[in-house]
Model the fold of this input.
Amino acid sequence: MDLLSVHLDKTIDTPLYEQLYEFIKQEIIQERLPYGQKLPSKRKLANHLEVSQNTVETAFEQLIAEGYLTSRPRMGFYVLAHGDLEFVEHASAPEKQISKADEEPSILFDFSPNKIDTEAFPFSVWRSLNRQVIDESHHDLLLLGDGQGDRQLRAAIAHYVYHARGIDCDPDTIVVGAGIEVLMQQLLSLLPRSTIFGIEDPGYQLMVKLITHFGFLGRPLDMNEEGVSIEAVRLLEPDYIYVTPSNHFPYGTVTSINRRSQLLQWANEGEDRYIIEDDYDSEFRYTGKTIPPMKKMDASGHVIYLGSFSKSLIPSLRISYMILPKKLLEQYRNRLTFQQSTVSRIDQHILARFIQTGHFEKHLNRMRKIYRRKFEFIHQLFEPYKPSIQLLGEQSGLHVVCEVRNGLTEKEILRRAEQERIKLYPISYYASKNVIVSHPQFVIGFAGMREEEIEEAVKHVITIFQL
Amino acid sequence: MDLLSVHLDKTIDTPLYEQLYEFIKQEIIQERLPYGQKLPSKRKLANHLEVSQNTVETAFEQLIAEGYLTSRPRMGFYVLAHGDLEFVEHASAPEKQISKADEEPSILFDFSPNKIDTEAFPFSVWRSLNRQVIDESHHDLLLLGDGQGDRQLRAAIAHYVYHARGIDCDPDTIVVGAGIEVLMQQLLSLLPRSTIFGIEDPGYQLMVKLITHFGFLGRPLDMNEEGVSIEAVRLLEPDYIYVTPSNHFPYGTVTSINRRSQLLQWANEGEDRYIIEDDYDSEFRYTGKTIPPMKKMDASGHVIYLGSFSKSLIPSLRISYMILPKKLLEQYRNRLTFQQSTVSRIDQHILARFIQTGHFEKHLNRMRKIYRRKFEFIHQLFEPYKPSIQLLGEQSGLHVVCEVRNGLTEKEILRRAEQERIKLYPISYYASKNVIVSHPQFVIGFAGMREEEIEEAVKHVITIFQL
Done:
């Protein structure tokens, strides 16, 4: 190394040791300092550069740590790096070219069934619970908790499902996760690759995508007025079926008691047959009592119950849960030992308090009233256009299905909707090609709109639906 | 149905319609009302029971919804349920017997390397950011956001990795997730089953478990003083290697610049070869500059960078991220379309603000000082026992490795530690059987203890380590 060529600038911000480090590193990368070359001693270099020996030492230490130099005891410092350093110190090529797809042209009205009413969210209660939980006295909540979710939240969920859905479960059978998809991925990871899934058709297409993405066979099961067809189940011989018995997506059909019994019978015939019951939107039923879940009838442990706070509270919170039958729970515990909880522990305790203090129940009652009013309002708005425009489905949920019986095709309606910047969700989005409907149908989500918006949106959509 | 046998009690809380519903349901379940049986008209039943017709109607509607009855237009109401109802209405057998394993006997000192100092967490800043984000003006944050994580957080992370780690990446290449395990599961789901992983040995055993749990071959790669052995990589011919180049777990070895170059060279030789760089604990280096990550040298897109806020902030927050090379990012976007973000959107925005407002940097500087003091303290405590008890490893991280060179075996030391209720983590926990150390070694995590505790704990552990 040509010691004379080092120039350290004491007037700039960069520390001297860092300037020296950078200089020597570049000399090595440029191969001006070859492999094996001995460096001058720290003292000598310090004297020459008129810096403290400490400065040289710090620079050398960093170069040693990064593997450019090595120190041999009582021998001195040698260049360690050699060979092909072509990948080193290229500024990493930022992949700026990858940007997200351009946003769609601005939408006037979006009938997505995945929205909720955000105006009634109890912000102040939530803030106050945050303030209580994020507190110096809760140091322990900063560390990792239980992989299945903290006991407090699981106990609160057990309490809730008992009182709201009649399910008597031990909190230890509950797994909390960051969304139904995360829980399903955990469940799928426990199953043999040959597992076959039967899925309601029409139904929740995300589940079909998820199951097939993870390499499992997911086949559609026909629906009839009593729920998923038992003949279709018997014909397919699946290991697992995915159903929404209390409120079929998207029609709202309630699976009849007979059909439930037949499905449970089917599951009980095989040791490893399971029913995945997604108790989706069950909170929002506007007439009579809520429909009891199948899990309530599951005496022999063949029902996996999925619940979520996405619709009942807020989707962006990402908290869902599953209740596992004993056999699967044991597998979960024995095999998913690496799995930490996927939900912030602070959020878990906030939600647990929200449930325990009765705020959740209050919120649900309030939302039920709000959604019922919107539901009735939308029915009223469509009423004059019967029977050529007809609403289908049960007295429940956050969307209706609208059937257009005047000869217009789905394609034509979608073309018109796009022109008018209205986002419509045809039933074909939610079904395999097997499902044939005689008239075009659309899922009309109303939960996220205010009444004035609903009125305006329906006015627009009716002109689109009319000949 | 024997109408005379219905008894509705007007003095109790249960609504009349619910009593009637329950009565009819039980009649059907007990098969006293057989399949196909016609029920009396609503009017007739209402008169007989001296209740309003509305009460009967509500009860019938619920029974219809649940599939016990059917209504035939202009004909009346008929029993629909029949056949084998044996699974119905059993109280679900609560699986109370499944309780978690009993807690271990109370531990006096736990040297887990997974703890952090929780006393220095900026509770009041965090609370105040919570208050700002959970606000009526942020309705939109209640709805689902971007599956990769909200842009604001990704931009804040991009800013952070640029300034702290020198990585220049587009925020669109970042995926935010609820922990490294969740992100790894997403990544694994994109790979063919035949993908072979090479993993540093000793190393992060959770990763080995995770990779093998998801059905992939994960093989150990020997380590030497320059990092993971390039000969071992060449011999195994893996598709992916998992490495911790800036701070090897658990020894703290820094992968030399040569080895980095060789590894990048290896990756560049195959189109689908990738280096998973877990930049674990890189924030906590106590001498010199931080070690630059390999991602910084990754000009050709073969490095997947994993980062986490578990150690640098708090583990219970469950926020980690990965920076994907272009090709994998495209696969992620095209194939994981069902994947919603696994992190609460409110938490994402709180963290984004924490970073953007400089609080994160301030926190890191503060923690670096605290941990350095503890690190130096622990070295000082062990100093008098050299060379029979020796600390290994770099000037970094939240743990040290302690080697006991006096002939005591690992087994004997663990037996003593258990007796003294001290939780020790031998190196064998973190290694495959291939790894042979000549003297027993233990990972000594110190981050979660106060200095007085460290002093006390080390005093105990030294008596255990001595002949």
